[in-house]
Write a structure and sequence with these properties.
With 936 residues, the protein is an alpha+beta fold. The protein has 6 domains: 3-166, 3-Layer(aba) Sandwich (Rossmann fold); 177-243 and 509-622, Topoisomerase I, domain 2, CATH 1.10.460; 248-308 and 440-502, Topoisomerase I, domain 3, CATH 2.70.20; 330-434, Topoisomerase I, domain 4 (Orthogonal Bundle), CATH 1.10.290.10; 644-792, no CATH class; 820-826 and 851-869 and 873-936, no CATH class. The strands form 8 sheets. A 7-stranded antiparallel beta sheet has the order 14-11-12-13-10-9-15, with helices on one face. The chain has a 6-stranded mixed beta sheet with strand order 2-3-4-1-7-8. A hairpin with a 5-residue loop joins strand 20 (661-666) and strand 21 (672-676). Helix 6 packs antiparallel against helix 18 and helix 17 packs antiparallel against helix 20. It is flat and about 95 Å long. It starts with a strand and ends in a 29-residue tail after the last strand. The relative contact order is 0.08.
């Protein structure tokens, strides 16, 4: 007795092609409630031993979406932080109810359900969505999973013969990722948009301007857990390029041209010392060589070299190679690859696998291409055994799909675009290349001596091109016309001179390099990397040079990353954390951890970051003001609109935004507050304790805030407390307080000078211990909400752990030490050392003393002892430091100078990247240039 089987594919085109192949072209089509998803019907002889009537339809990607309940979907319907704890629903949205009704109707008419969704994690998750809808309509359905990698007869027939069960772990992994991305993305998107959209004029960004013209207002400033680390990579490279300071170097250039009668060979020798950054030393060596005049050959070595054929093609490797060689974007490549797959010309294009199964008939695939005029001759040489070699494994196997390879030969269909022809040709040529032998060459290395200085040159002659013959995207070669030199032979160089040059910044970030970095950090999946890159352009966060295929951040994109860096939330834009989350999701797919465990850890971590972001929102707005004009007025940090600025005596420069004034005034309730004059942009506000009866600005600067290195000096505030209402630990009614901080109800952060135990009516400075007692009520809260930015950077938990809780007193004591300056990151005395370099012999210098404890925690600060003026060591220009590191932390590090990628200098932001202006070319350590290198 025949059974009726409902088959569901992921796309209508796949349903049509599978029906055509399995029915031998006899499938009949009809329409149901979902008019864009036809229903195909045909007979099939054997479904696990049963004759069957096959009913084939499709969905269109995900059938369901993860969303918040209705009460949480409105932006002002709940507190943003509630999005981390509220329930989430997975349901069919309104625009897919027709698909749901069609599946329900067909399920009631069938006994079996076969799932033909794409064979990756995402497809497995969609399978469970389809199962949920179909089982609700018919709980008695027998469910099977078809797994296939190409839309060709042999592959589909194999899938029908090996039906299995859907993978619940893969589906759970996608559920975990969707929920994490929803909670984090929604909360930070709302936070960014509410804080920034209406404050700043974004019309200068082309992509944003287009959205404004369409919608009438600036778009949502979206945050994505993969999107922002991708943007962070782009901004990081821009900072490295912008921060680079060219450094001059010198090298000795030697060339030799053989006489035509001797063979006419020529070569250029490279100096074994490479580059020198001291002109006098370089000239000395050059004069030695010039005096010698004659070169002596000291060694000639010949070796056989091989150039490996490429490994089989995975998705990310296809994107990296094709973007560079075919000059197409990753998004375009994936769109064309999907079309080629659905038409049956290549295998499934979303795979991490770069290893062919040993049992796969690769020579059968090669056979289909022997008649092609472009690569047929090479295919014939493979089949003859002349070039055949089993493809080398690349080391990755997702156990779902084989590497990308051609499944059908084509000379190029008449309706194919030029790009599609190019991509198909690339896939075929790559497959034939990986089935071919390695290329073989002969390399000759020659070393000469001139006056005791060594110079080297290398020549290469390709003997067997092999796979290179069919793969025009790679070259291999070198100087194949070296002079015929023998050991002991002497000659006079044809050319010898001292050349000068300068170091170059890293190149702008190419799409190939961006994809490679995302792959290395685990940002996104092989199927979503191109999508994350495209979002940078759509959101107006980055721009792409279509000619060079390189990326550069827009002022909006750079401002957002710089703002999170300023808030000390590097985890939210640096790639490491997202890579860890992706690794946890892979563990869910492998069954090593549960979905709930991964969700709990991720949500707990990001919720803490979100609360910090809310507390430091003024820093984000202030950083945006450095890059973008305020809405309805001029640009910059002064802010515009939002009411008159507060009036009162000036305390100094606001330590939160670093650009506006900090004013002492009285709030509406009569309570004294220290508030930033840029209320619309920064919004920094510090309420003094209610016990303060009177407050005035002293003529003396705050000693502690002077150490913080923030936006500028702060003056002390003289406070007089009400009788009987003094905060704990304060022994005077009249007290002069450093204007550093405090929470809304506590004593805050005070200057810990000397002082006595004066009576209730006496005025004087209290002791450091009394200062700590008054401000200890809620230490962590007080730090995060109230202290100036640079002071918070010093007060992170990592510093507290290292210093043993010495707090302000320890910092002040260290700062006054006459023996060594403080390093900017750890607030510890620097270590004194002596230079071993030839340029600066025995010259003493200071460097981070923390490197003696843990090298990875060294901030890399550097200062010659004879240049120390008694102040703390200035931090590196590009010294990052995330949460708990002084350069980033709450305020970006005291006194840090940073070159913006859009031009101009501003303080308090560390990129955490390399390649900045303070990195030694010789030893790659920060803090000095090569000419001053103490490690030379």
């Amino acid at each position: 007795m025949s059974i009726r089987v409902l088959n569901v594919a992921e796309k209508p085109s796949v349903a049509k092609e599978v029906s055509r192949i399995l029915s031998n072209g006899s499938a009949r089509s009809s329409r149901g409630p979902a008019r864009f998803n036809p229903i195909w019907e045909f007979n099939y002889s054997n479904v696990e031993g049963h004759p069957a009537v096959m009913v084939f339809t499709s969905v269109a990607g995900h059938l369901m979406e993860v969303e918040f309940p209705d009460g949480y979907r409105k932006w002002h319907g709940c507190s943003d932080v509630d999005l981390y704890s509220c329930p989430v629903d997975k349901r069919v949205p309104q625009d897919r109810t027709d698909l749901k009704r069609q599946l329900e109707q067909l399920s009631r008419q069938c006994q079996w359900l076969v799932l033909w969704l794409d064979c990756d994690r995402e497809g497995e998750n969609i399978s469970f969505e389809v199962m949920a809808v179909c089982r609700a309509a018919n709980p008695r359905l027998v469910i099977r999973r078809a797994r296939f990698s190409a839309l060709i007869p042999r592959e589909l027939q194999r899938a029908m013969a090996t039906l299995g069960q859907p993978n619940a772990n893969d589906a759970a992994a996608v559920d975990a990722r969707q929920e994490i991305d929803l909670r984090i993305g929604a909360s930070f998107t709302r936070f960014q948009t509410k804080q920034l959209r209406d404050r700043f004029d974004l019309s200068g960004i082309a992509a944003v301007r287009e959205r404004i013209q369409q919608d009438g207002r600036a778009p949502v400033l979206s945050y994505g857990p993969c999107q922002f680390p991708t943007l962070g990579i782009i901004v990081q490279r821009a900072w490295e390029v912008q921060n680079h300071v060219r450094e001059q170097f010198w090298t000795i250039h030697v060339a030799y041209r053989e006489a035509p009668t001797a063979g006419g060979g020529s070569c250029v020798f490279e100096w074994a010392r490479g580059r020198l950054f001291d002109e006098a030393v370089a000239e000395m060596y050059y004069e030695i060589c010039e005096e010698a005049g004659t070169a002596v050959v000291v060694s000639v070595r010949g070796t056989t070299r091989t150039r490996q054929a490429p490994a089989p093609l995975s998705t990310l490797e296809m994107q990296k190679r094709a973007t560079a060689k075919l000059r197409m974007s990753g998004e375009r490549i994936m769109k064309l690859a999907e079309e080629l797959y659905q038409a049956g010309f290549i295998s499934y294009p979303r795979t991490e696998t770069d290893v062919f199964d040993p049992g796969m008939d690769l020579q059968g695939i090669v056979t289909e291409h022997t008649g092609d005029p472009r690569w047929g001759r090479h295919a014939q040489r493979i089949l003859s055994g002349e070039l055949w070699r089993q493809p080398r494994p690349g080391g990755h196997d997702d156990k779902a799909h084989p590497p990308i390879h051609p499944t059908r030969h084509s000379l190029g269909e008449h309706d194919w675009s030029h790009d599609k022809r190019q991509l198909y040709e690339f896939v075929v040529r790559h497959f034939l290349a990986c089935c071919s032998k390695d290329a073989v060459g002969s390399e000759t290395q020659v070393e000469i001596d001139i006056g005791g200085e060594r110079f080297r040159t290398t020549g290469l002659m390709v003997l067997e091109r092999n796979w290179l013959d069919v793969y025009p995207y790679s070259g291999w070669g070198g100087n194949d016309n070296l002079p015929k030199l023998t050991v002991g032979q002497s000659f006079v160089p044809s050319e010898m001179r001292l050349r000068t040059g300068s170091t170059e910044p890293p190149p702008r970030l190419s799409e190939r390099d961006l994809i490679a970095k995302m792959e290395a950090y685990g940002i996104g999946t092989d199927a979503t990397v191109a999508e994350h890159i495209q979002k940078q352009l759509e959101r107006g966060y980055a721009e792409k040079d279509e000619g060079a295929l390189t990326f550069w951040p827009t002022p909006l994109g750079e401002a957002l990353i710089s703002g999170y860096c300023r808030m000390g939330l590097d985890d939210l834009w640096k790639p490491d954390l997202r890579g860890k989350i992706e690794a946890s999701i892979r563990d869910v797919a492998a069954g090593r951890v549960s979905k709930d465990q991964v969700l709990q850890e991720a949500i707990q971590f990001f919720r803490a970051d979100f609360l910090t972001a809310q507390q430091r929102a003024g820093m984000l707005a202030a950083e945006m003001a450095r890059f973008l004009p305020t809405a309805g007025g001029g640009g910059g940090g002064g802010g515009g609109g939002g009411g008159p600025p507060p009036v009162g005596p000036l305390l100094g420069t606001c330590q939160s935004c670093g650009g506006s004034s900090l004013v002492l005034t009285r709030g509406s309730e009569g309570r004294y507050v220290a508030v930033c004059s840029s209320t619309s942009v920064c919004g920094y506000r510090l309420a003094l304790p209610r016990a303060v009866a009177d407050a005035s600005v002293s003529s003396q600067p705050c000693g502690r805030c002077a150490l913080s290195g923030g936006g500028g000096p702060l003056m002390r505030a003289d406070l007089r407390f009400r009788m009987g209402q003094m905060p704990p630990g304060i022994l005077q009614v009249h007290y002069d307080n450093g204007g550093g901080g405090g929470d809304d109800d506590g004593g805050g952060s005070h200057d810990g000078g000397g002082g006595g135990n004066g009576g209730r009516g006496r005025r004087g400075r209290r002791t450091a211990s009394a200062s700590r007692a008054a401000g200890r009520g809620d230490g962590a809260k007080s730090r995060s909400r109230s202290e100036p930015a640079a002071a918070r950077a010093r007060g992170t938990r990592a510093n507290a752990d290292r210093s043993g809780g010495g707090g302000a007193a320890a910092s002040a004591a260290a700062a006054t030490s006459a023996e060594a300056p403080l390093c900017p990151r750890h607030n510890l005395p620097c270590r004194r050392a002596v230079s071993r370099s030839t340029a600066n012999p025995n010259r003493p210098f200071f460097t981070c003393g923390h490197s003696e404890r843990a090298e990875q925690d060294s901030c890399g600060c550097f200062l010659w002892e004879d240049q120390w003026d008694g102040c703390r060591v200035a931090p590196m220009r590009n010294s990052g430091g995330g949460r708990g590191g002084g350069g980033g932390g709450g305020g970006g590090g005291g006194g840090a100078v940073f070159a913006s990628a859009i031009g101009g200098m501003h303080g308090g932001v560390g990129s955490g990247g390399g390649g900045g202006s303070g990195v030694c070319y010789r030893c790659q350590q920060p803090g000095h240039f090569a000419r001053d290198c103490p490690n030379a």
